[in-house]
Amino acid sequence: MMKMGSFSQLTSMIPGMNNLKMDDAQTAKQLQKFLHVMDSMSEEELSMANPKFEDTRMLKLAIGSGTSMDIVHKLVEQ
Question: Fewer C-beta neighbours within 10 Å, C or N terminus of the chain?
């Protein structure tokens, strides 16, 4: 059986996630929050190469995902 390595090693292979300097528990928690935000996005928003969201849309994504605007901001930046 093949081992995958630690969670931080796995996320380092995901574009935009390699600059997160956290331990495995923090990385897993951050990734989970990002997934909640992404679940709140439309298909069109997810397919955008460089999304530009207005503050009102970012607030709606934060509320819809149960996270903060700070989390949404971090995801959009990455």
Answer: N
Judge whether 16 and 78 are in contact, CB under 8 Å.
yes
Report the half-sphere exposure of 71 (CA within 13 A, side-chain side): 22
Domain boundaries, the chain: 24-77
- Round to whole Å and give the CA distance between 73 and 45: 14
pLDDT at 78: 80
Contacts with 67 (C-beta within 8 Å, 6 or more apart), sequence order: 33, 36, 37
Half-sphere exposure of 40 (CA within 13 A, CB side): 21
The 10s digit of each residue's pLDDT in 32-61 is: 999 999 999 999 988 988 888 899 999 999
